[in-house]
Design goal:
Helix content: under 10%
Radius of gyration: 16 Å
Structural class: mainly beta
Number of helices: 0
Strand content: over 45%
Distance between the termini: 20 Å
Largest sheet: 10 strands, antiparallel
């Protein structure tokens, strides 16, 4: 069964601030394998919605191949699919921190690879990496290169600096997800992403196919399993 992932970060305010859904691992349901298919809730076009999977425990990295499967419709706000890690850090007040990388689509059809980071006491930084077209596949991931030091990767190369996320080491469970935000306007953004070849790197190192992860979804999403480490997310 696909369940909603608890949120510890504010909702997205605009495209310059894609918000990571910081994972509250202890609040998730018991660990489970992917189910064959699931429909989460009824169609809703208001606010922020999402669907994806999360590792069952803290890891040192997560990677996935993301492919847009059909022409997206983005009337306001944005849609995105990404891999990332985040949670409450050790900065002043324990504010949320995160690093994510993926594909974002804006109204008018502009689509791009981006990475985004929020560091303690700083504003969220959004960086465009390159343009993409519908149907392109890209391998994206985040990895902890040293305790609390994370980096974003695209197609086998580093595209971000090393970012220090205090409190992250052996504490945060990475996620691979899709999201839609209506930009404060009641409108229905639509998309379909395949997120496959999901692999994780445990704290001890190496990379392995993700055979079991915790799925989650909010309303208006259909999530189908292609393989133990592959899903398709639709929002119509």
């Amino acid at each position: 069964m696909y369940t909603a992932l608890p949120q510890t970060a504010p909702l997205i305010s605009d495209m310059s601030s894609l918000r990571l859904i910081a994972a509250a691992t202890a609040a998730l349901a018991a660990a489970c394998a992917f189910t064959a298919s699931s429909q989460a809730g009824t169609k809703s076009c208001n606010g922020y919605s999402y669907a994806g999977v999360q590792t069952l425990q803290p890891e040192r990295g997560l990677a996935a191949t993301i492919t847009p499967l059909r022409q997206w419709t983005v009337t306001s706000g944005h849609v995105a699919a990404w891999v990332g890690v985040g949670g409450a850090g050790l900065g002043a007040g324990g504010q949320d921190e995160w690093l994510q990388i993926g594909i974002a689509v804006l109204p008018g059809g502009t689509s791009e690879i981006y990475y985004e980071v929020t560091l303690p006491g700083q504003k969220t930084q959004y960086t465009s990496v390159q343009q993409v077209t519908n149907g392109e596949s890209h391998r994206v991931g985040v990895v902890e290169k040293a305790p609390n030091a994370w980096q974003a990767f695209l197609d086998g190369r580093a595209v971000s600096p090393l970012f220090t996320l205090p409190g992250s080491h052996a504490s945060w469970s990475p996620i691979a997800t899709s999201e839609s935000y209506d930009g404060g306007v009641t409108s229905c953004n639509a998309y379909s992403f395949r997120i496959d070849q999901i692999s994780y790197s445990p704290l001890t190192g190496g990379w392995f196919p993700a055979a079991k992860m915790q799925p989650f979804a909010s309303s208006a999403h259909s999530v189908s399993t292609l393989a133990p480490n592959a899903i398709v997310v639709d929002r119509r």
